[in-house]
Amino acid sequence: MTNPATHPDQQVFHEHRNLLFSVAYRLLGTAADAEDAVQDAWIKWSAADRSQVADPKAYLTRIVSNLALERLRSTRHKRETYVGPWLPEPILTGGDASEAVMDAESVSMAMLVVLETLSPLERAVFVLKEVFDFSHAEIAEAVERSEAAVRQAAHRAREHVRARRPRFAADRSRQREATERFFAATTGGDVNALLELLSPDVTLWTDGGGKVRQALRPVVGAATVAAWFAAIGTVTYQGIDPADMKAELAEINGGLGMVFSAPDRVIATVTFDFDTDGRIIALHNVANPDKLQAVADGTPYDMGTR
């Protein structure tokens, strides 16, 4: 009897599974929804007449894009009625994503936040074209639109992203060094060191989803943000005494970030966005417990685009 794990069709799907997750996560911004889309793609792949499939990779990518697009449309209302800022669900990433600058940038919190402001169609077209290098014709087939409509959506999305997300911040080694210094200053409660690292008009976005107490509006300005982080080691947070809270650096969404943990759970992540001088211009703090499962699981995702 054939072992199902070695069945050729299952092997083909398994070969492309990382890619399918990479597409779905960039379209949806949550690991849980992306995993569901990949699982649904497996069900469709299992039921399909695979003898008619000339290019399994393109076929599977088309299926998962379509499923993610449907899911994105249906979750839109939930995000619009969300308590406080809605941030993507952070994931741990492997070294590969951090080495490939384009891959890392396209999965960064800052980019995913910008993608959230696109329409579902624009988001799908932008991700498939700019990140995965699909042709307009391939995308048209994947999203079931005319090639002309796809070209229009691609143009709108590109302009929108360019206006909100200028390409190429400081080089990655400077970003890494600034993050390490921020970590040391936060854990040491050093306000002056924090102020040196922050842009004057830095913005802190916090997502507690109404489940834990967080700022419901962005916190703006270096002095306020520095005071917020310098106090972490001195105040009880979510019922956790500072002595029982652990902070550590981790690779999150293609860049170095911070994970805060209690003895029994992950309680928050912080990721950073930088200007060209290497100063921090935005911080994204996710504390909604529903969004921390992927980080708590501790398994890094391969977010490569090939």
Automatic annotation (TrEMBL):
Domain RNA polymerase sigma factor 70 region 4 type: 110-160
Pfam families from the UniProt entry: Sigma70_r2, Sigma70_r4_2, SnoaL_2
Gene3D superfamilies in the record: 1.10.1740.10, 3.10.450.50, Winged helix-like DNA-binding domain superfamily/Winged helix DNA-binding domain (1.10.10.10)
Stored InterPro entries: ECF_Sigma-70_Domain, NTF2-like_dom_sf, RNA_pol_sigma-70_dom, RNA_pol_sigma-70_ECF, RNA_pol_sigma70_r2, RNA_pol_sigma70_r4_t2, RNA_pol_sigma_r2, RNA_pol_sigma_r3/r4-like
GO MF entries: DNA binding; sigma factor activity
GO biological process: DNA-templated transcription initiation
Keywords carried by this UniProt record: Sigma factor, Transcription, Transcription regulation
Taxonomic superkingdom: Bacteria
Entries under CDD domains matching the protein: Sigma70_r4
Positions of the SnoaL-like domain: 180-279
Domain RNA polymerase sigma-70 region: 13-76
Family: Belongs to the sigma-70 factor family. ECF subfamily.
Assembly information from the UniProt record: Interacts transiently with the RNA polymerase catalytic core formed by RpoA, RpoB, RpoC and RpoZ (2 alpha, 1 beta, 1 beta' and 1 omega subunit) to form the RNA polymerase holoenzyme that can initiate transcription.
Protein name as catalogued: RNA polymerase subunit sigma-24
